[in-house]
Amino acid sequence: MGGDEMVALRAAKAELRRAVRDQLRLLLKDEVTVQSVKVFDRLLSTPQYQSAKRIAIYLSMPLGEIQTRPIVEDAIRRGKRVFVPFIYSQRVVGNEKPLSVMDMVSLHSQHDYDSLERDRWGIPTPGQASMAARENCLGDDAITPSDQITETGGYGDLDMILMPGVAFDLGCRRLGHGKGYYDFFLSRYHQTRAARHLTASSKKVPLESPSATKQTTSNPTSTNPHDTMRTARPEPENPSRHTMVVMPYLSQYPHGRLKLPSYGTKRYSTVGLGLEQQILPQGQFVPTDARDWQLDGLLVGNGSLVE
User: Can you give the pTM of this predicted structure?
Assistant: First the structure.
């Protein structure tokens, strides 16, 4: 992607964020609660959640997104190992300035969760002083050492990752808040997990390409395993309820490229949680490029599941 295209992509993302946030400001807290309950109930019915033993869950802001407190409490109650975001500044190999980096670290108990202090956005956040006692899903018992953080650094093993976003489309493409926390985390997590499984099972089970993980329709002349589009997805119920402003430019960037593959018979899932007001109508797409990770599924505030 050239410089002009990158500038246009960033502008498209910024415009979409503004449009969605304007819609979310009109949303009443009670409506967020109703939609959050529907997502919670639908999630609990899925085999992926029921069987997951290690699950990463974003901790929600008070307004403007699906509330995850009931999910965290249910996962702890079921004995699942719960991981939550921890954001810190760290010098990254190849970058002159320190970056804000996100790891996923473990919660010990319900009491531990209840004791988390809220940050300036009202999000419960683990404290720096507690890191030594928490498991880091990237493999360390504390913050990832700076000499291990690269574009492909880290370790880990999760069964499910529940992710927030500003906007989503029906192809399970996600627009974040613009900090790159989740895309960078997924890049590090995927690469190191692939290395672990390659080392552990290269003599037993070959690695599958992303295109082999699901039934897809692909460009027959392409040799890039990421150049795939999954089969048609059902549209969430009551599309007329969407009040999103139509944005013709969105069709210029229809394809998220990166997809998390399975290794052997074990698969982990990335699932976005979105309010109805955050879902683009049929025919509109979240603007993405090759650095944006595509989700495996999307749980919508009307209780529907897109996958």
Answer: 0.76
